[in-house]
Write a structure and sequence with these properties.
The chain is an alpha/beta fold. The chain has 20 helices and 17 strands. Bound molecules: phosphoenolpyruvate (PEP) and magnesium ion (MG). The site of magnesium ion has 4 residues, from helix 15.
Length: 570
């Protein structure tokens, strides 16, 4: 019988084929107290070494299959294996607590994975899967077990509870039609790799997919998250057509990604990327990004014991600026604090970390720490079009203070004969309702606004970003959020300030006509979303979009907005 299972679309495209069920091997182990800790330590060290050798081989394979930037995941795995803190904790568990190698390894890695999972930043949450992946790899070696069979003998759709990045690399790509996992979110590795391979994927589909019968015909739709098991003839026919047209469409969109995004009636808007690394920046260019609308700098600060110094930061920023060349880059100063902890800054306990000592608030209280970042940015900006953006701004006074520190940093460098980038624009993230409501008062103090709909929605709806229980109230297309967005764009334009958006809403196809109608100047999104977003922009007419924007601003609920947008066809 035909049945449908709903998951989360993670990589667009339709795939049809027989199901291949991938079962993770049983890696259960015993816990016991060891008599000879040194021998146990030697076992763990040898296993870690073997794991490293295996990972090097996987890295080489991934470079060939998915390219240098995606293969970077495995370089990161190797670095994690070598992380002195990780190795030291395992060592201590064996030497002091007399744990056996398996338990010491798994307890330590699980602790690390849980710390990552507790972070607000999706990127770091997804890293928990990496740690569990290397832990399982090393455990398998310790237990002397073979890897589960992943050989596909005919073209198949792979179904699994979860797929680790290394499982994904081991799959024979010539036989792989798409992936589907019970676990995982849209930013999981399965999703990232599937996108890099251009294969459809659905994640977070729940345990029901594990009841599938091997070889059963299944359709997956990577855009909608639909999984259709045992489709009837009519459904199969419809999806076959869809599959072919989607493939053609994606190829056409990518081939046009390098051209500008101009509406039918001639308005050109900027389409830029959200990035957090050199690899992301390379991907941004391939996908037609005209610049970077949000460079998240947190990656440099987390997962380490001491603050990155000015030179380290300079090198990291310069590497990304160099990839982008002459294209504009909006670099955001550090946005940590709250629940993203830094071992080298005492953030203290807070009952409501999202309302606490985050981002610019923490930076203004630690001027030397903040100025180190500002100096690094100023130095790396030479020869590039760089714009500095402050996150979590609630009041004009904060921007003024931050600008004073920026000028001090410039003066300090110049006093030492060090060259700084010139004509650097300074802007803010509008992600706190207070800043949106008071947008007019920021005119003259900032050169641009970039709307962060992820936090703006969280604070407008009073729904914590990570709390699933209240997630139904959280949607950036809620008229309450849309009214704030419209106000920011209107006030920005009145004051001669350009307005961009780097929250997830900017890359949401159905939101694009609304944002075009409101007059948004710059759309910043994950690199993979750019080709389709540009295609959507090109199908719209600003005059129609203005009406759409006016209509939705007058609707009473998110549900009404959804229903309205579902009916419009560009
Ligand atoms: C946002 O809040 O919309 C945003 C882009 O920033 P982040 O997701 O990094 O908080
Ligand atoms: Mg934010």
């Amino acid at each position: 019988m035909m049945k449908t299972i709903q998951g989360v679309g993670a990589s667009p495209g339709v795939a049809i084929g027989p199901a291949f069920l991938f079962q993770q091997e049983d890696l259960s182990y015993n816990s016991y107290s060891v008599a000879d800790p040194q021998a146990e330590l030697a076992r763990v060290r040898a296993a870690l070494q073997t794991a490293e050798i295996q990972l090097n081989a996987i890295y080489e394979k991934a470079v060939v299959e998915t390219g240098e930037s995606e293969a970077g995941i495995f370089e990161a795995h190797i670095q994690m294996l070598e992380d002195p803190e990780l190795v030291e904790t395992i060592q201590k568990s064996i030497e002091v607590d007399r744990m056996n190698a398996e338990k010491a390894l798994m307890d330590t890695c699980e602790h690390y994975a849980q710390t990552m999972e507790a972070m607000t930043d999706e990127y770091f949450r997804a890293r928990a899967a990496d740690i569990r992946d290397i832990a399982r790899r090393t455990l398998r070696i310790l237990l002397g077990k073979q890897m589960a069979d992943l050989s596909l003998h005919s073209p198949s759709l792979v179904f699994a509870y979860d797929l680790t990045p290394s499982d994904t690399v081991r799959l024979d790509k010539s036989m792989l039609l798409g992936f589907c996992t019970a676990e995982g979110g849209a930013t999981s590795h399965t999703a990232i790799l599937a996108k890099a391979l251009g294969l459809p994927a659905v994640v977070g589909a729940g345990p029901a997919i594990l009841d599938l019968i091997e070889g059963e015909t299944v359709i997956i739709n990577g855009r909608t998250g639909e999984i259709i098991v045992n489709p009837d003839e009519t459904t199969l026919k419809t999806y076959r057509q869809k599959m072919n047209s989607e493939k053609d469409l994606a190829a056409v969109e990518l081939s046009a990604a390098g051209s500008p995004a101009i509406t039918i009636d001639g308005l050109k808007v900027e389409v830029v990327a959200n990035v957090g690394s050199v690899a992301d920046s390379e991907k941004a260019i391939v996908n037609g990004a005209e610049g970077v609308g949000l460079l998240r700098t947190e990656f440099l600060y987390l997962e380490r014991q001491t603050a990155p110094n000015e030179d380290e930061q300079y090198d990291a920023y310069k590497a990304i600026f160099d990839v982008m060349g002459e294209r504009p880059v909006v670099i955001r100063t550090i946005d940590v604090g709250g629940d993203k902890e830094l071992p080298y800054i005492d953030l203290g306990h807070e009952d409501n970390p999202f309302l606490g000592w985050r981002a610019i608030r923490m930076c203004l209280d630690n001027p030397e720490f903040f100025k180190t970042q500002l100096r690094a940015i100023l130095r790396a900006s030479v020869g590039h079009d760089i714009r500095i953006m402050f996150p979590m701004i609630a009041a004009v006074s904060e921007v003024k203070k931050a600008r004073v520190l920026l000028e001090e940093s410039r003066n300090e460098l110049q006093a030492n004969g060090i060259v700084c980038g010139e004509k650097i624009q300074v802007g803010i993230m509008v992600e706190i309702p207070a800043a949106a409501i008071m947008a007019d008062k920021f005119i003259g103090v900032v050169d641009f606004f970039s709307i962060g709909t992820n936090d703006l929605t969280q604070y407008t709806m009073a729904v914590e970003r990570t709390n699933k229980k209240v997630a139904h109230l959280s949607n950036a297309l809620d008229p309450a959020v849309l009214r704030l967005i419209a106000k920011v764009i209107e006030e920005g334009h009145k004051g001669g300030v350009w307005v961009g958006m780097c929250g997830e809403l900017a890359g949401e196809p159905k939101a694009i006509p609304v944002l075009l109608g409101m007059g948004l100047d710059e759309f910043s999104m994950a690199p993979a979303l750019i080709p389709h977003a540009k295609a959507v922009i090109r199908k719209n007419r600003v005059t129609d979009c203005k009406q759409i924007a006016m209509d939705v601003l007058n609707l009473a609920s998110y549900a009404d907005v959804e229903a309205y947008l579902a009916k419009i066809k560009p």
